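Ticket opened by: R.M.
Priority: normal
Category: complex prediction / small molecule

The reporter submitted a protein together with iron/sulfur cluster and asked that the result be attached to this ticket for the collaborator who will pick it up next week. Submitted input follows.
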Amino acid sequence: MPQLNLDNDDFRNHLYNQSKDGKRLWIYPGRIIGKFYRLRSYFSYFLLIALFGLPWLEYKGQPIFLFNVLARKFIFWGVPFFPQDFHLVALGLVAFLIFVSLFTVLFGRIWCGWACPQTIFMEMLFRKIEYWIEGNDKAQRRLNESPWTQEKMLKKGAKHTLFLVFAFAISNTFLMYLMGKGDWLKLIQEPVGLHIAGFSTIWIFTAVFYLVFARFREIVCMVICPYGRLQGVLLDNNSILVQYDHTRGEPRGKTTSEQSTGDCIDCHWCVRVCPTGIDIRNGSNQLECIGCTSCIDACDAVMDKIHKPKNLIRYDSLNGVNSGTKMKFNLRIGAYSAILVLIVGFLAYLLLTRKPFESTLLRTPGMTFSFDEKTKIVSNLYQIEILNKSMEAERFEISVEKPLKISWVGNPIQGIEQGKMAKGEFFILAPLGLRKNGEKLPVRIRDGEGKEEIIKTSFIQPDE
Ligand code: SF4
Ligand code: SF4
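Result attached by the on-call engineer:
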C-alpha cells in the first residue's frame, strides 16, 4: 500500500507559521471557492445574522440571551436563571463537556471549521475584507513586501479602518449579551463620564478583537485555543476528519514526469489555500488543522482539471482511508449518537421541569413556641423567602391545612416582580395536641398559574 511521503519530515520540528529561528511567518492563504466554501459561507451568514440580531430581540420585555455575570443574571433562550439554579448550570456544563467530547470523537473538528466564532469572523468577514481590498494571496504578499506608496497606504488604511469598525461592532454585540440591550443603549446614549467602566470595556474588547483578527489570526487556533490542543486525546482512527487519501495520492508527482505517480500531482494548491499554512498530506490529525475544508475544495478543483475523480482530500476516517471502505453508519456512531441524544434529552428535561419559583422556609432559629393557655393554641414563628424566577410578576398564596392557620407578621407576601425575591415572617397556629410533637407540617406555596410547592417543616409544642 502506498505510504505517506514523509522523507522530509522537517514540518515536525517547527510550527508552520514559524521560521527555523523562531520568527513569525505570515500566512497568505489563497482564495478558493468550491462546494464546501459556499456551504460554509451560507451557514456563516446564518450564524452571523443570529449573533448580531439576537441581542436586539426581547421576550416579555427581557433579552432572549443574557450573561450578566456581575449582576448574576442569566437568560438562556428566554428562560431566566439565578444563582439558585447553580446545580442546573453545573449539570448543564458537565453534559455540555460530555457532548463536546463525544461529538469530537465522532465528527472531529467540524465545530472549528463550521461554527467557531474565531473561524467565522476570520474567514468569512475579515479575510473577505482583505481579499476585497488587497487582492488574492499573491497580491497581498506583493503589497506587504513593496515600499510604502500612496496606494499601499490607502489600501492598508482602508483595511485596518474596516477591521476596527467590525471589531467595534463585535465588541458592542458581546457587551449587549453581557449587559442586555436596555443597559447597553443607556451606556452609548448617556455622557461618557457616567459610564467610564462600560466605555473602557468596549474599547478593550475592540482592541482585543482587532488584534486577534488583524495580527494573531491562526495563532489563536494553534496556540491559545484549549479545544484545539485537546484534539490529540479526543480523536481516534474512526473520527471523521478532513483526510488526504494517501492510498490514492501517493507516490505524488507531476503527471508528466512519471508513469507510476499517484493522483496527487504535488501542485501544492491544498497547502496554498490552508489558513494555518499546513500540508494536509502530512496527516489528518494535525493540531493546526481547523477542518475548514479549503483544501478539499482546492484539490477537487485540481482533480477536475486533470480529469481524475474528486475526493482525493475528503471527509473520512483514517480507517476509512486505509481500508478503502466508504464511511457508513456503524454501531459506534449509533451508540455515541444515542448517548448524545440522552444527554440533550436530560438537559431538556431539567429545563422543562424547572420550577418558575424557588422558596425557602425555616422555623425562626433560636425560637421555640408560644402557647396561649386560654385558647390552647400553639404558635411557631417561620421565615419564608420566595424568588420569582418567571418572566412575569406573579401572585403567591401560602397556606396550611385546616384547622391550622397562618398569621403574618407585617405584610403578607403576595405579588412579586419578575426576577425578584420577597421575604416574610408568619406564625403557624395549631390547637395543642393536634399533631405529634416535632411532626412535620406541610406548607403549600402556590403561584398564580396554579404551580405549587409543598415544603414540610417542623412544628414544636409543649408536652400535654
Ligand atoms: S491539491 Fe491535491 S493534487 Fe495538489 S498537492 Fe494537494 S493533494 Fe496533491
Ligand atoms: S489542512 Fe485543510 S481543512 Fe485543515 S486547516 Fe488546512 S485547509 Fe483547512
